[in-house]
Amino acid sequence: MSIGRLMQGKAHADTPGVTIGAPRAYELCGAVCFAGRRNRAFSRLAALSGAESGDRVLDVGCGTGYLTRRMAAVVGPRGTVTGVDPSPSVLAYARRRSGAGQGAACAYREGVAENLDFPDGSYDTVVTSLMLHHLPEELRPAALAEMGRVVRPGGRLLVVEFRPPRGALGRHLVHGGLGHAMSHNRTDLLDGLVTGAGFEIRGSGDVRPWLTYVQAVRPVSRERTDRPSR
Q1: Would you give the DSSP letter of residue 133?
Q2: What architecture is the 3-221 domain classified under in CATH?
């Protein structure tokens, strides 16, 4: 049995996606897999999000809140950061880890990516890391569409996914340890998912050792910008 399967949580009534049920094991796995570079990698991703001081940020599929807390450091005390995840156990862990002195206060809510319980345009920046591969492929467009709905026009999106190792040894280790969903993760589909949700891609690349990302913005509609002022 793979480590990934051992970390899986109970099925959630509102989604067929896979949840994480063992937050401490997940954190240990992250520390080992990143070989001491996890903080550096996710701090880099927080910077790549384009979030600014005072932003309202949503972290979709926040898990244990690792990226959530780094987003809080970026937006500072005038900003807000909300993490949403379907797993009560990882949310409880995230709340315990989100202490004072990390910038903005982090709030956490239970919910699913494909049906976000937030108003239209209520966030300046939306981020999601290592979440999409937990959803069945047919639900991923709905999750991106929801992110497009809750981010304001002109707002930013950062999608981060696991990039399967290119070397034979790395592929063997990942396939044996983390399971099929990550060892065969179709990161080549990310651009299409993002543009299909109505975003404009502004950049993409890799963050070592295992991550790939897409940066995008939600366009400001022509109808809005061309409307005469009153």
Answers
A1: G
A2: 3-Layer(aba) Sandwich (3.40)
